[in-house]
Amino acid sequence: MSQRTLLFVTGHLAENGLREVLSELAPQARFQFEIAVPGVQVAALLHTGLLTSRLQVPDHIDEVILPGWSQTDTEVLAGHFRKPFRKGPKDFRDLPEFFGCGSRKQADLSSWSIQIIAELNHATRMTDHDAVTAAFQLQQGGADLIDIGCVPGESSPRAGQLAALLTREGFRVSIDSFDQREVTEAVNSGAELILSCNHSNVDWVTQLQTEVVAIPDQPEDLQSLQTLIQKLQRADCRFRVDPILEPVGMGFTRSLQRYITIRDTYPDLPMMMGVGNVTELSEVDSAGVNLILAAVCEELGVQSILTTQVINWCRSAVAEFDAARRLVHYAISAGTIPKHVSSDLVMLRDSKLRPDSESSLKELAAALTDRNYRIFATENDLHLLNKDGWSRSKSAFDVFAAARETAQKQSPPHTVSPEHAFYLGYELARAEVALLLGKQYVQDSPMSFGLLGELRASSSLPERSDPARKHKQDSSDAQVPSDSPADQ
Q: Considering the entire predicted model, what is its pTM?
């Protein structure tokens, strides 16, 4: 008996991802498949009139499967094409479950192509203990190299000391300084990359036989960068190129164009981007910004980025970029869009809400026979229910006050213990936060905060050599100014 042949209709953006899923699913579900893309980017734009005019269904097709999002009338289409039409799931990754072959296959996000260099800001002002602790936290977030950030205008012996310390602790290290003494001592102590090199220091930097980051003399001066590239090539010095990403308001878009120009001119040269110039200097939650910059790097073949997480809205920037680099690598490699693949970067809101309907709450309220309070957060209101009544408002204070008034009117008055009142206040506050942010609230259950939940769960340091004990004498001797970032 021959296998059925199914025609799957989709948009351009989902075609490659759909083909990958069907290639694995078809042998399991015992069908053959073909894919039709009737000239739209997104499957949700498909409608009955468009399909009747553009879609072609060959005679050998046994059934046509439409995306769940499509605005189509399957009966009209079946009558027009004289073939059965059926809507599949809204997400093509759920097709295995749709055909009874188990749940969707999870995307493999283990691969990435962008190296993360994470800076210890003003590292030379940090104690040994603070430097190692901060370096470990950056590494835990996904950093591949720890950059020793020096202070402009200061020439400190701490650069070399910290490079030696961090390499002994197992970290890969780079040095960010234009001071010859700091750079030389750091390289001699194990630093494997120098940030940065331009015409002001190229003569002595190339003598250190260490990889450097080539930058223009001024951000907009690409000619100086091209001249520098030629000098580094003649000196047989290993280097990666950074045309300098400018902050928003200071030439951001034009600086992106310079990355494109360098990549077009030098298709094989390693490149780097300092994404912290945008994340740290834009007052916005950094996760989405990191995703977009990771996509730019992935598409241009920028193999490394420099970032930091000094300001509060960037406090998880390294982990965010780690999640972003994996997501964009998967999306671009698979030729699909980075949607419904991972929710790690959805932290402020939730990917999907399952609100309780007004009718379901009414049914519950009518059925309650006890005084235990149930708390819900719908699209517009908070709800507090028990057998005595139903309080609702946008404010947790108002809901609690209304419930208290209802309880006091009962005969005898219903009293709530201080412990129970604390619990109700806590849960109502969580529900109000969920309502404000657009997150799913379930009483007594934790809310999802994407990768932030994982970071919080893994915040304790694992067993390792104790830098506080091992370097106690070094730390006590180090001169750490009172305005050190470690003390702020």
A: 0.78
